[in-house]
From TrEMBL:
The chain crosses the membrane at residues 25-48, 98-120, 141-162, 196-219, 240-260, 272-292. One of its GO terms (cellular component) is plasma membrane. This is Olfactory receptor. InterPro entries: GPCR_Rhodpsn, GPCR_Rhodpsn_7TM, Olfact_rcpt, Olfactory_GPCR. It comes from Orycteropus afer afer. It holds the Pfam family 7tm_4. CDD domains: 7tmA_OR14-like.
Length: 313
């Protein structure tokens, strides 16, 4: 891969996992496998939660939107990375980079927002079962999802405008497999990147509020579950909460680690793997995690695979 006089390029050069062609092919193969698994798993969840009448509760309505977000989130970075690795060319145009930043930041925020809404749904279902249908009325659920997508768009617009108002006056090499905002900021040699810091600080505050809401929801959930006298009742309740808790923990912990880790001019393999755990693994694992302990989901999946009939209205 020849870098040459990159300052004359209208776009950016993505430096992925390795300059060795064989390792690039391996990276492309692994990313492609994970992408196809994510594509299949999330599409299956979207289909069965749309067609099966047993999966029309708010929990599955939010899960359907989480799967749509996962599918979109992984599609922002992985196909471009696979193409670059196969072509042995890390070039990405300025317009493509802008779109990547917008959709990546939008969908990352939307993931956290929908996980927060899902934790509130579990809190309402377990702590206020008699009022659940009123609290999580279908109209309120639609408004909640609308708020998730709207806030995601606002987040993406703020990050994109702030990031690309920066003057890039260094060699336009990005040490990442996609257009990562911290790596883009390192290309600035003036103080105009402070706008991005301001946006990041505001979104970090909002993310902290979401995370606090999730933690408080689960504190109330666990205190309620432990008072259930029936062991079977506790197990059934945990079966709907533990997958969500695992997804939240994995997504938030990797995001926090990535946020706190200093940005390096020459990232190590460990740094790049953290990005993979943050951007690629969650959309691939979420369909498996949510389906593994859910008998209704498994039955709906069997009906889809074996050609059985879904229950309808």
């Amino acid at each position: 891969m020849i870098i040459g006089n990159i300052t004359t390029m209208s776009g950016f050069l993505l430096i992925g996992f390795s300059d060795i062609h064989e390792l690039q092919i391996l990276h492309a193969f692994l990313f492609l496998v994970m992408y196809l698994l994510s594509l299949a798993g999330n599409l299956i969840i979207i289909i069965i939660t749309t067609l099966d009448q047993h999966l029309q509760s708010p929990m599955y309505y939010f899960l359907k939107h989480l799967s749509l977000l996962d599918l979109s989130f992984i599609s922002v970075t992985v196909p471009q990375s696979v193409n670059n690795a196969l072509m042995d060319d890390g070039y990405i145009s300025h317009a493509q980079c802008i779109l990547q930043v917008f959709f990546f930041t939008s969908l990352a925020w939307a993931e956290l927002a929908i996980l927060t809404v899902m934790s509130y749904d579990r809190y309402a279902a377990i702590c206020f079962p008699l009022h659940y249908e009123v609290i999580m009325h279908p109209c309120k659920c639609k408004w909640a999802v609308t708020a998730v997508w709207l806030s995601a768009s606002i987040s993406g617009i703020l990050f994109t405008i702030a990031t690309f108002s920066v003057t890039f006056c260094r060699t336009t090499v990005i040490h990442q497999f996609f257009c990562d905002v911290p790596q883009l900021i390192k290309l600035s040699c003036s103080n105009d990147y402070l706008r991005v810091v301001g946006v990041a600080a505001f979104m970090s505050l909002m993310a902290f509020i979401c995370f606090t809401s999730i933690v408080l929801s689960y504190i109330h959930i666990f205190s309620t579950v432990l008072r259930i006298p029936s062991a079977g009742g506790r197990a059934k309740t945990f079966s709907t909460c533990l997958p969500h808790l695992f997804v939240v923990s994995f997504f938030v912990s990797t995001a926090i680690f990535e946020f706190l880790k200093p940005t390096s001019d020459s990232p190590t393999v460990f740094d790049l793997m953290i990005f993979v755990f943050y951007t690629v693994i969650p959309p691939t694992l979420n369909p498996i995690i949510y389906s593994l302990r859910n008998e209704v989901m498994k039955e709906a999946f069997r009906n889809l695979v074996l050609g059985g009939k879904f229950t309808r209205k």
